[in-house]
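Case 448 in the screening queue. Each case pairs one protein sequence with one candidate compound; here the compound is pyridoxal-5'-phosphate. For every case the pipeline is the same: read the inputs, emit a complex structure as tokens, and attach any notable structural observations.

Predict complex for case 448.
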Amino acid sequence: MPNYQYPSGSVLYRDLQHGLPLITRGRGVFLQDAEGRKYLDGSGGAAVVNIGHGVREIGEAMAAQAAKIAYVSGAKFTHYPVERLAERVASFLPFPDGKVFFLTSGSEAIEAAIKLARQYWVERGKPKKYRVISRFPSYHGNTLAALSLSARKHYQETFRPLLIQSHKIPAPYCYRCPWGLAPPACRLRCARELEKKIVKLGPESVSAFVTEVVGGSSTGASVPPPGYFEAVRAICDKHSVLLVVDEVMTGAGRTGEWLACHHFGLVPDVVVMGKGLTSGYFPLSAVAAKKELVDAIRRRGHNFLHAQTFAHHPVGCSAGLAVLDYMEKHDLLARCERAGDVLWRRLEPLFSRPHVGDIRGLGLLVGIEFVKDKKRKTPFPRGKKYVEKFMAAAIKNGLFLWPNVGHAGGADGDLVMVAPPFVIKDREIGLLRDKIASTLDEMEKMFP
Ligand code: PLP
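Case 448 output:
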């Protein structure tokens, strides 16, 4: 068996330090490697695979589209898959008559969204509006502008001179509230920080506020307190700041609604999606904007100044359509919500474990945060590499979860995301829990 570890072979692996299992197939919630070992994909990759692995009809839909027409430039042509997928996405947006632009990754879509916001203000005769406010912790991607908006110190440090200016306020990450407050007594101080920041920068210079709705891995699925987004929406309206929501991880049903916005009655100006939109069967992301934003551009005789070769890709859009069809046919939104309840009941007893500080989330997006001292919420020092060791032990146990670091003050912090495909069966949820529990047993021996 070849050794898939750098420097053997020609791949610039994402992990240059360790060997990687070679995955040859997947079915439902399971992956299988070339040696026949099975892994329970407890996070659908990076919270991507919503409908499960190995769904033949998605591959067939993509193959049929590729055989008809695989590619045309979106600059001068349109086609059925993009027309139909845009209509489908628009049908679950929280605003009427939305307009949807398809790209390939979440990072690109975030960048396109902040460009769209900026262009909107220029077209409206307010060229001073360019600044973007985001939150910490947060994650919006790894291309330079998306990375600038993110609060990921370990990813940013090396590239600091290349990053654009960004302005950050604390996220509603109540487990680690920077002021040591809790709702409702906090009176949503984290939301009020947005207004403070806008006023400090000068509302005439602020173009957009970019925010996750339910936190992704950056806060381990932290759910905002009641009233948070009502306050944020009102502040954005008061100061003419566009509200851009990053639903790259939460969109396409992951929290039990098509968009996490719907849980909060939130009506943003722009929604960014990715990941689950095609469930990983093709790289596809989307920027969905209120019609009035696009109208402002068209009225001046302009186009949205964004051009990427693979925008509106026919095969990508056909994958998105097939995935959304599959979700509807198998009632996977309801299934996600129900499986989320079962998962929660199975995971809850893990609260008693010595290093499980918190378990939180919505639907099938759950974060388990590990701490050294539960009472004080003290994280393990980063040098101990808790979550890296957890992941190595989990993989040995045939379990894959999605890790995160850096949420506890910028460098420290260890958590894993549990975000299985929506098709997970009750007994597989039991297996998932058992594998997490046995991995914790090993960790407790390593970190007594
Ligand atoms: N936004 C959020 C909330 C994400 O979780 C991610 C990726 O994990 C991104 C943006 C970036 O997406 P991509 O990795 O497809 O560029």
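Case 448 observations:
- The chain has two domains: 23-54+331-446, 59-329.
- The radius of gyration is 22 Å.
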